[in-house]
Amino acid sequence: MDVTHPKVLSKLVLVSLLLSVGTARQALAESKPDNSRPILPSATDDSSKIHLATAPAPVRLSAKANVRQQTFLFPRSQAEQEEQVEQQASIFPTSKKKPVTLLGEELILRPATSQAQTETQAVQEHPSIGNQQPLGHSQTLATSQGTRAKTQVEDQPDPVADRLVHAHTLSQQADTLDEFSEVVRLCRQAILLGVESERLQFTKDFASWALNHRGQLYSDDEQGNRALADYEASCRLSTDNWRALHNRAVSRAHASEYAEAFDDFNRVIKLNPEFAKAYCNRATLYMQANAAVAALDDFTQATQLEPDLIDAQIGRGRTCHMLGMLDEALESFTAAVRLQPDNANILCSRADLLADMGQYDQALQDYANAIELDPKFGHAYRNGAWLLATCPDDRVRDVTNALLGAQRTMENQYGQQHVALDTLAAAQANAGQFDEAVPTISRAIELAPQSTRPLYRERLALYQQRLPFRIEPLKNVSQADYQSSDE
Questions:
Q1: Predicted confidence band at 472 (pLDDT cuts at 50, 70, 90)?
Q2: Which of 36, 411, 420, 473 has the most crowded CB, counting CB atoms within 10 A?
């Protein structure tokens, strides 16, 4: 459903379906990829965009295999994986990036943590620093160092302790694929050499941390297979690593594995109920399952946990707009504009809402500001032209600028052509050019989907009677379904 067009907004259906978690998961499991309406809006982070695809699951440790044929609990480094990935390319093809769309605007799903960790994040995430050290790490590392000192005195080197201490030292400044791969390799060797039981889980947690970070670097480099393989291995090594679990959910969602992604987001929220991005991402999957009310609950929770999470504010604004909760939608869009005042997309979304609320002057101001920010932004030209041509307020209508905006929309080829033609026909009719408006709207009828044609035929009848079309605020019109009218 396209809610970026004022005329569409004045014909929205109110969605009141609240699916249970089980019902939503079933709906997601039955979902098929829909290239005409991609699904994920996402939680923002300060990391790069993720572009993911499915990948073979990492194979498990086999103590019986020889060293050269050994299959490990960890994915291998990039150099080690080249041959295997090439052999499996036909089975696990890398898909190209899918645009991620919620209610007409592009938003990108991002991983839970960024490549460049701040010092505070590092203290929270790293298994070997900070106050919350997992599984008695302080004692484990002390034991390793103590053992190392003792063995040095006795001239009996401890290869396990050496590798763990080396991995710990390297991890303090690791930020490249090679460095994280080396940490993984050292942990893998420690396990193969028979790390003691009290240090085994620490070693797994350490490797899980490194794998998650290496997966993010693969994601940044658009190597989706390797990224997902690292996330899978990270989750297997440490079942409580919610960051890796979140990143796996992102990967699965981009691979159209919606039900599996939904399960992962549920577990992330259970492990860390304060993580706003997981609620924001799960809300998008609720939208995929046509559960707008459940999505609104999650978007709202995300904004309460993290008011500056802009994608949550945008998602809440659009969902409220879709459900007819116009004041709440305005609150969220205004918060989003405050966070990113130079974002033309957000300004246009708020302008569309203001037009439906009958606040036409404010809507035109937002469209004008969006065009000033981006002189080629087709959304602002098309929807601004529609308002200038169809507004019921004589003060707002502008014959010249309505035609100009509609013609610019046609030139820029913004959105689907039948919507641009409908806008042009409205501008022509508003200018008294009914002889031009009739063939223009007739062409729009030919190109439009079946569900949209009755609306266009109503306008055709008006133009044939030499009457222009006028909109009404959303609260004054009956509700009707309207198919997506944007690409």
A1: confident
A2: 420
Q: Does residue 74 lie in a domain region?
A: no
Report which of 57, 28, 82, 6 is spatially closest to residue 284, judged by C-alpha positions: 28
Nearest alpha-carbon partner for 477 in 383, 368, 390: 390
Burial category of 443 from C-beta neighbours within 10 Å (exposed 0-12, middle 13-18, buried 19 and up)? middle
Residue 313 lies in a domain: no
The answer to whether 226 and 245 are in contact (CB under 8 A) is: no
Enumerate residues 6+ apart whose C-beta is below 8 A from 95. 53, 54, 224, 254, 255
CATH number at residue 399: 1.25.40.10
Give the chain as a 3 state SS string: CCCCCHHHHCCCCCCCCCCCHHHHHHHHHCCCCCCCCCCCCCCCCCCCCCCCCCCCCCCCCCCCCCCCCCCCCCCCCHHHHHHHHHHCCCCCCCCCCCCCEECCEECCCCCCCCCCCCHHHHHHHCCCCCCCCCCCHHHHHHHHHHHHHHHHHHCCCCHHHHHHHHHHHHHCCCCCHHHHHHHHHHHHHHHHCCCCHHHHHHHHHHHHHHHHHHHHHHHHCCCHHHHHHHHHHHHHHCCCCHHHHHHHHHHHHHCCCHHHHHHHHHHHHHHCCCCHHHHHHHHHHHHHCCCHHHHHHHHHHHHHHCCCCHHHHHHHHHHHHHCCCHHHHHHHHHHHHHHCCCCHHHHHHHHHHHHHCCCHHHHHHHHHHHHHHCCCCHHHHHHHHHHHHHCCCCCCCCHHHHHHHHHHHHHHCCCCHHHHHHHHHHHHHHCCCHHHHHHHHHHHHHHCCCCCHHHHHHHHHHHHCCCCCCCCCHHHCCCCCCCCCCC
With a threshold of 0.85, does the pTM exceed it? no
Residue closest to 261 by CA, chosen among 85, 3, 50: 50
| Residues of the domain holding 364 | 1-10+344-487
Which two structure tokens, joined as six digits, stand for 23?
A: 């019902």
371-400 pLDDT, tens digit each: 999 998 999 999 999 999 999 999 999 999
In-domain check, residue 404: yes
| Total domains, the chain | 1
Asked if residues 295 and 319 have their Cβ atoms less than 8 Å apart, the reply is: yes
Higher pLDDT, 99 or 142: 142
Judge residue 410's burial from the number of C-beta atoms within 10 Å of its C-beta, 0-12 exposed, 13-18 middle, 19 or more buried: middle
- The pLDDT tens digits of the residues spanning 434-459 come to 999 999 999 999 999 999 999 999 99
